[in-house]
């Protein structure tokens, strides 16, 4: 991998005029002199996507990557749920179940959750803050292109590679199992490849976070002050700060684990090594939950008021609660370790902070509800997903508050209650906010409109499937069903079957989404109005829709088809609309 990266760097260094590229959409030059200006059209086809540094193109690449990972991770869990439909089922072996369990968690968190947020952030933050592009366009591209090899490394065990089997450590990679101790098969190279892939995805996320921080701090338009910075940019800025502190620690822990596995070091192979791994992992792992949930909160805070017909209630409090979550998230990691025997006084302090962090989350929830109160609510597909987000977030949040209490956690720890709680947040909240953003901004990045009926079918099947699946898991946890088992006692069969039915309903909803998304992008009704949601009536138009309106007004008309013409250094900029110009004359 190192040789490959060096070869790529050497090739880039030999490309003529590679330093003279400018991403500015307005025809800017590098160094301020006309002699340095390079006028080349953006390449077309595959070359365009392989070489682009345009923030919008990279946002689309992130989105495509994340949706592919979402499909892979979703199909993994469907196989697991079919296996769990009957306690005696042998559709797959127990070891293969453990492999799917491990890869499903890592795929959804690192290959779907973080990239889908980066997709929205890359495409829309420069538009929202009035920037020409990201602060470091090439670093932005490099951050994305680290992700495909990361996915291949994480999934390497499933490929027909001799003597390589998938990791079976679960996504937490607890030692001594992940260190290869005992007579198991976890010394296999598949675990090492998975760890390398995780490390690569962490490097990508860290590079992206530095870029977002620099962009929001230095590239804002003069009119965009801290006081009127949009809520989505605030949440991404906070998320980027969390990534900057959390992901390098995970990378360090992974490197120590790789050294233990391959070079005989003793970081985690001594007394207390398992507790050390948990402290290092969860110091990353719990901020990671807020790394994943803060930008979706920002999407909901941006989209929900648009269809409630009023501005976000208590904007400043939503911003302050975002910053409070960012600070407090680093003080709650040991609530994952209440059952490990750590000092009771230390344990009590983590319980207090874990309960306290529910307060800023509650502030956001009440602000969303109050924004809808007496509003002119329009139940569009994005609004339905926002309401579903709020509903599922309440269920996921309340069940989390119970787990923050030491006595309750000691009973429910490592049961399906934890799985239900976590998935109410990850699928019921984070994914729902992602779908809200996809539908809301669909006209901007496709120029077309999705099929409304199919969008609502997608919502209702997702909402029903989510609650059937994960509420059944909550009840399984109350019954004492431990998680991460490929089989179970007969008394849990009914609830497992209900959860499997819910998962299949979820699958049906996502199939409808894929069909609607692809078919509408290719053949959907073209958007001719820069305000397709009618936001101007309530004075709720945001900067990205103003940009979209300018794009439509300056589009070239060629037999009824819109054509984007490339200008200076790579950003496609639509030329004047010839037909409109003729009419004006």
Task: Describe the fold and architecture.
It is a single chain. The chain has a domain at about 45-270: Cytochrome C Oxidase, Chain A (Up-down Bundle), CATH 1.20.210. A two-stranded antiparallel sheet has the order 1-2. Strands 3-4 form a two-stranded antiparallel ribbon. It is globular and about 70 Å long. It has helices spanning about 1-15, 45-50, 55-85, 95-130, 135-145, 145-155, 190-220, 230-265, 275-310, 315-330, 345-355, 360-370, 380-405, 405-410, 415-440, 440-445, 450-480, 495-525, 545-555, 580-585; strands spanning about 450, 525, 555-560, 560-565. It contains 20 helices and 4 strands. The longest helix has about 35 residues, at about 95-130. It is mainly α. Helix 3 (about 55-85) runs antiparallel to helix 18, helix 4 packs antiparallel against helix 6 (about 145-155) and helix 17 packs antiparallel against helix 18.
Q: What is the name of the CATH architecture of the domain at 47-269?
A: Up-down Bundle
Q: Quickly count the helices.
A: 20
The CATH topology of the domain at 47-269 is Cytochrome C Oxidase, Chain A
What top-tier CATH class of the domain at 47-269 fits best? Mainly Alpha
Structural class: mainly alpha
Please indicate the percent range of residues in DSSP E strands (runs of 2 or more). Answer: under 5%
What would you give as the CATH superfamily of the domain at 47-269?
A: Cytochrome c oxidase-like, subunit I domain
Biggest sheet, spatial arrangement of strands? 1-2
Rounded average pLDDT: 88
- The count of strands amounts to 4
Largest sheet, if any?
2 strands, antiparallel
Question: Distance N terminus to C terminus?
Answer: 60 Å
SSE succession = HHHHHHHHHHHHHHHHEHHEHEEH
Low-confidence stretches: 15-39, 556-585
Gyration radius (Cα, Å) is: 24 Å
Shape: globular
